[in-house]
């Protein structure tokens, strides 16, 4: 759909009258003529034989003045009559135009409300399932989402938000970027999402820019845990069902483009009190000059649409009437013709209004809901049965004029009256349900109501939606048993389902997971000596403690007896880190269980044995449970109250990690770190600088690659002193190069982690290193990643600006692998973007990587930023990057990371070669 023009024509004349009865108003307007009024003449009662006052005054005038005065009086009289006719014409023109605007606008409003309400209705079943079963399977989600998506062409996808993170999307194809989106970290969405959480009401936002691309309207249905015995939506907040709609399709199906062809149209938000909201279609001035406005009632608020005709000049008939009005206004025939034409126009306007009403009735017949117009006392004033008249308790003619108490069962009548009362108090009401016995069986309905804007004759529009099928689904869901009756934890059936989901998540996210099998030690002895009721108390307390240890994304289940299972998801893809995290949780579980338990009047100290099975995609659920159980028995064999892994190699990996950790803590003191450098060149193969790379010279293992210890240093907090050492050495190296002719202008780039950036002394440390060694700060380049920026962008921008004032420059490393948001990129004082090697690797074979690289380079040039590509290994890659506009390169094609001494020799060689070539 094409965007509506913002400045198509001039708005209507603001001085145009808006009197509801223009003919009477025009006729009652007095003519401003220089004649005394009739009452004044009557009071004078002149002598009939004496000359009148006008005659005497006329006779006293000089002869030369009389023609001018006659011409003036004639001009005033004709001008006044012409002004009266012109004013009447403009009033009726405004009347006709308003009728035409209302006719077209009503159709757009009804279609838009119907479209959005149908979309919301299609997703309510998914929201109800989510509320009752927060951890339902992905296959169930896909089935229900597919059924909803097939009904609406405007639906981009259906997403399931757990907490604040978008976890599941259907269809996934084309919407991969949306999965994992954290609403709380998205400034454009988070405020509205918070309002939805507080109000517990459906949220409609838009039009907004979608993550998938394009413009959309986002419908979010909040989901709260269903609590038995309480009203729906009264439980804890679980998340939301997110439905992005294609705004172009929604507006096109509502008829908005056709309306915009003939009228200047604007659309804006409108809250419950009638205050103006943001204008997201058209211009705000349209609402000030509009001939007609209408509210589009939506869940969570409303929109308002306004329009006026596209016309910046007077109509041709009015201009013609002005041109010839002086000649024909004195003719009675013209007056008769003019009045006849006005009557015909009024008749035409009435006919158009009748046609508009007939079309509106046709639209109402297509709406699937029952619609009633009622007064505040519950009396039916009008009925629209929609597509299914069989859902009415009585025939339409039998309903009108009767009260709800005379038609519906007492309980249903009470709910209807409460809905009317709520609508009268706050303007609208929704969500109440009633049950009505009908000839074909008992049916359930959900009520929605809205109050009109006429305080003199308040009326309520009540919509009744058939939710019988949904009610049956809810009852079926409640009947299903997915939890342990004693502890309330998930049982084996639900655990199996979540294991399947965890395996799918591992395959999708390339992460690991862990299964912890927990068995209480000597539990049989407790049951035998103190009874099963005491044993049940211990099981309940252990379940509570386990739930307090794990994260929200993890699962605690009870298989039976004294056996519990904990499923840890979203662990690090590195095996040693995942094993360390799983062991840490297992040890916490052991410590928590070992705390004294108050069982009745006595305290009881229990222990447990924990078996751990790490896994990733490709495993079998049955094998996972069996392996975790085997590891648990190995823990019992080892003496109970301990943790054991199923895979012995994990123990070796943990041991290796412990050794690396111990050596890393001493590496700085022993001066075991070395600084290597990888050359960076320009398009002429001339060295322009280098990237400083850290290496660890272990006394026993030799040279250790950074991938083995950098992550561990981050976890231990050692990255801050190590990073300080690197910056100090980099500054010292720059100081050594400054005195050399060939190397004096080379830059040196140093990688900075997120933990370093957020260290309170980071800025002072960098400034101190620059001042101590007396280097040009512009030669020191700090490389940061997108993940480091997103943690706290305001803090990062502040420290970057502080260092930028000192002359230090910043480069964005691995650009394009994160969110790559322009929102934060434009705020960062960067001097360079570094294209990630993942795009360079396949640039010769993957058109998508080629497009991404060209986009990054074009964007960088637009923002006056340098661009450098890393990971360049072939001449073809270098040529393609150069053709795309990249002039700086780094990679094995130019040179590998080498000690600083070897780098200096390489740089001199390249620089001398370039000098000799000239």
3D structure, described in words:
The chain is of the alpha+beta class and 918 residues long. 47% of the residues lie in helices and 22% in strands. It has 32 helices and 31 strands. Strands 22, 23, 24, 25, 26, 27, 28, 29, 30 and 31 form a ten-stranded mixed beta sheet that branches. A hairpin with a 5-residue loop joins strand 10 and strand 11. The longest helix has 68 residues. The N terminus is likely disordered.
Q: Uncertain spans, ≥5 residues at pLDDT below 50?
A: 1-45, 272-276
Mean pLDDT: 80
Our measurement of the CA-to-CA distance between the termini, rounded to an integer number of angstroms, reads 58 Å
> How would a textbook summarize the main sheet?
10 strands, mixed
Q: What overall form do the CA principal axes indicate?
A: flat
Radius of gyration: 40 Å
Number of strands: 31
Helix content: 40-55%
Annotation field: number of helices? 32
Beta-strand share of residues: 15-25%
Judged by helices, strands and strand pairing, the structural class is alpha+beta
């Amino acid at each position: 759909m094409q965007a509506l023009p913002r400045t198509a024509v001039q708005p209507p004349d603001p001085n145009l009258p808006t009197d509801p009865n223009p003919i009477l108003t025009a006729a009652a307007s007095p003519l401003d003529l220089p004649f005394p009024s009739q009452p004044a003449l009557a009071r004078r009662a002149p002598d009939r034989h004496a000359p009148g006052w006008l005659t005497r005054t006329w006779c006293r005038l000089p002869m030369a003045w009389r023609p001018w005065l006659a011409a003036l009086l004639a001009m005033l009289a004709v001008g006044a009559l012409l002004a009266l006719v012109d004013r009447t014409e403009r009033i009726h023109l405004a009347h006709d135009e308003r009728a035409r605007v209302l006719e077209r606008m009503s159709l757009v409003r009804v279609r838009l409300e119907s479209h959005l309400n149908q979309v919301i209705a299609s997703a309510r079943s998914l929201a109800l399932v989510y509320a009752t079963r927060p951890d339902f399977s992905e296959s169930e989600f896909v089935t229900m989402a597919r059924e909803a998506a097939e009904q609406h062409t405007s639906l981009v996808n259906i997403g399931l938000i757990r907490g604040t993170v978008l976890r599941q999307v259907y269809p996934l194809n084309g919407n991969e970027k949306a999965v994992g989106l954290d609403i709380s970290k998205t400034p454009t969405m988070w405020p509205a999402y918070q309002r939805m959480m507080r109000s517990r009401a459906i949220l409609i936002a838009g039009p907004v820019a979608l993550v998938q691309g394009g413009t959309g309207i986002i419908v979010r249905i909040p989901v709260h845990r269903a609590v038995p015995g309480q009203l729906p939506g009264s439980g804890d907040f679980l998340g939301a069902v997110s439905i992005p709609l294609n705004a172009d399709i929604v507006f096109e199906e509502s008829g908005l483009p056709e309306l915009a062809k003939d009228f200047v149209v604007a659309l804006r938000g409108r809250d419950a009190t009638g205050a103006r909201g943001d204008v997201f279609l058209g211009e705000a001035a349209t609402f000030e000059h509009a001939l007609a406005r209408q509210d589009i009632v939506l869940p969570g608020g409303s929109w308002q649409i306004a329009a006026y005709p596209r016309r910046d000049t007077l109509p041709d008939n009015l201009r013609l009437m002005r041109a010839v009005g002086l000649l024909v206004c004195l003719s009675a025939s013209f007056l008769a013709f003019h009045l006849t034409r006005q009557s015909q126009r009024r008749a035409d306007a009435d006919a158009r209004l009748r046609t508009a009403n007939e079309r509106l009735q046709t639209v109402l017949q297509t709406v699937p809901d029952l619609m009633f117009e009622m007064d505040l006392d519950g009396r039916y004033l009008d009925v629209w049965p929609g597509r299914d008249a069989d859902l009415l308790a009585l025939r339409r003619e039998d309903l009108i004029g009767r009260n709800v108490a005379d038609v519906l069962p007492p309980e249903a009548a009470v709910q209807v009256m409460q809905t009317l009362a709520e609508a009268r108090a706050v303007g609208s009401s929704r969500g109440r349900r009633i049950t009505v016995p009908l000839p074909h069986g008992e049916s359930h309905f959900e009520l929605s109501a809205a109050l009109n804007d006429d305080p003199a004759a308040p009326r309520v529009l009540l919509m009744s939606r058939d939710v019988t099928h949904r009610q049956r689904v809810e009852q079926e869901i409640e009947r299903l048993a997915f939890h342990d009756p004693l502890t309330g934890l998930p049982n084996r059936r639900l655990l199996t389902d979540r294991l399947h989901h965890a395996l799918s998540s591992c395959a999708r996210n390339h992460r690991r997971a862990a299964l912890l099998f927990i068995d209480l030690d000597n539990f049989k002895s407790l049951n035998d000596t103190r009874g099963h009721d005491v044993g049940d108390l211990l099981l309940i307390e252990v379940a509570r403690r386990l739930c307090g240890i794990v994260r929200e994304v993890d699962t605690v289940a009870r298989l039976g007896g004294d056996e519990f299972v904990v499923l840890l998801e979203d662990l690090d893809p590195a095996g040693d880190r995942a094993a360390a995290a799983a062991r840490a949780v297992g040890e916490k579980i052991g410590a928590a269980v070992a705390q004294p338990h108050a069982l009745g009047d006595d305290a009881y100290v229990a222990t447990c044995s924990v078996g751990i099975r790490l896994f990733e995609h490709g495993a079998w659920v049955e094998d996972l449970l069996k392996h975790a159980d085997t590891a648990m028995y190995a823990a019992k064999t080892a003496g109970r109250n301990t943790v054991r892994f199923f895979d012995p190699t994990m123990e070796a990996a943990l041991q290796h990690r412990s050794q690396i950790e111990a050596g890393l803590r001493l590496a700085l003191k022993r001066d075991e770190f070395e600084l290597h450098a990888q050359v960076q060149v320009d398009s002429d193969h001339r060295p322009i600088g280098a990237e400083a790379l850290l290496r660890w010279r272990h006394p026993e293992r030799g040279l250790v690659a950074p991938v083995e210890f950098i992550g561990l240093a981050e976890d231990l907090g050692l990255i801050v002193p190590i990073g300080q050492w690197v910056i100090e050495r980099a500054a010292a190296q720059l100081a050594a190069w400054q005195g050399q002719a060939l190397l004096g202008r080379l830059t040196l780039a140093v990688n900075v982690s997120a933990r370093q950036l957020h260290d309170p002394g980071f800025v002072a440390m960098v400034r101190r290193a620059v001042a101590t060694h007396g280097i040009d700060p512009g030669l020191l380049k700090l490389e940061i990643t997108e993940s480091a920026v997103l943690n706290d962008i305001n803090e990062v921008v502040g420290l970057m600006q502080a260092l930028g004032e000192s002359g230090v420059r910043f480069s964005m490393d691995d650009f394009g692998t994160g969110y790559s948001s322009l929102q934060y990129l434009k705020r960062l004082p960067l001097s360079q973007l570094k294209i990630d090697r993942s795009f360079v690797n396949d640039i010769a074979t993957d058109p998508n990587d080629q497009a991404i690289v060209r986009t990054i380079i074009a964007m960088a040039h637009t923002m006056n930023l340098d661009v450098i590509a890393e990971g360049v290994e072939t001449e073809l890659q270098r040529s393609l990057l150069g053709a795309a506009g990249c002039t700086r390169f780094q990679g094995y094609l130019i040179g590998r990371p080498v000690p600083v001494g070897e780098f200096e020799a390489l740089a001199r060689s390249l620089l001398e070669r370039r000098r000799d070539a000239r």
